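User: quick one, fold this
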Amino acid sequence: MDWLADAVRTADDTEQIAGYLGYLQTQRKLSDHTLDGYRRDLLQLQTLAAEKSSTALAALTQIDIRRFASQLHARGFSGSSIARKLSAWRGFYQWLAQHRTLRANPTDGVKAPKRAKSLPKALGVDDAVRLVSTKIAQGDGEEGTTHRLCNQAMFELLYSSGLRVSELTSLDKQYVKTPEHMSVGWIDLDAAEVTVTGKGSKRRSVPVGAAAVNAIRQWLVVRDTTAKPTTPADPHALFITPRGRRITPRAVQTRIKALAQSLGIPANVHPHVLRHSFASHVLQSSGDLRAVQEMLGHSSIASTQVYTSLDFQRLAQVYDAAHPRAKKQK
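Assistant:
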């Protein structure tokens, strides 16, 4: 008569799941899409419990839940998917405890496997240099040349100094402190140095390479002719739009993506890609992790160490392509 006990147990579990979903629908007012997600996660819990000698959901222990999480991980579920399932199961048991006696919530203390940290996307050296140095006029005549000089100065500076796009757009032509305006970032071309205020209001100074200094000098020659006569230029901003306003991060994103696409660079290029490229390429050349940390403005060396993985990844690619014993045998 084991089959009868299993049938009764399954019916009891199904009734409890239906009751919890009804609660989520009527009391929590969750959407149908969200309810479907909860339903799938709870039915999977029921399936896992059935695989374990048909144990009732109310009788599962913390050891069981840990085993289920491990099984899901072994089957290829990501850490985020398992975390979502555990959250659904935890809510179910909290509700169930209000309707019947449970020794403990079996999901308490059970955590999903750590999610794999994705590596930042960096361009190869050749693509990065081609992107920031290409002289493509954005339109015809003087306006197109001005637009091109602005873009080149911005992109060279992003790659030269590893700035965040918000730090780039907040730069002034020089340090200003007046009742109306106080600089949070500025450039000193004579010293080949840029000063920015990063995360946590931390100020740092970063060297600016010769190519970026030259591009910015060329931009400054035409900067004040950018704004239309009816819209005077922002007197302090280093980079401005044709309307004379300080350029926005969104505008920089749009411009760099368009240029990368026109050059056929096979990557989703945005300003932060140049920051990653700066860090990766400087680290490859120097091996000085502390210096890269300082220039990026990372408060923790752990944030910078991710670029050592990028460096190793590149070395591994070179090895696989070049070493005669690295290639798979056919």
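User: anything notable?
Assistant: The CA atoms of residues 10 and 236 lie 71 Å apart.
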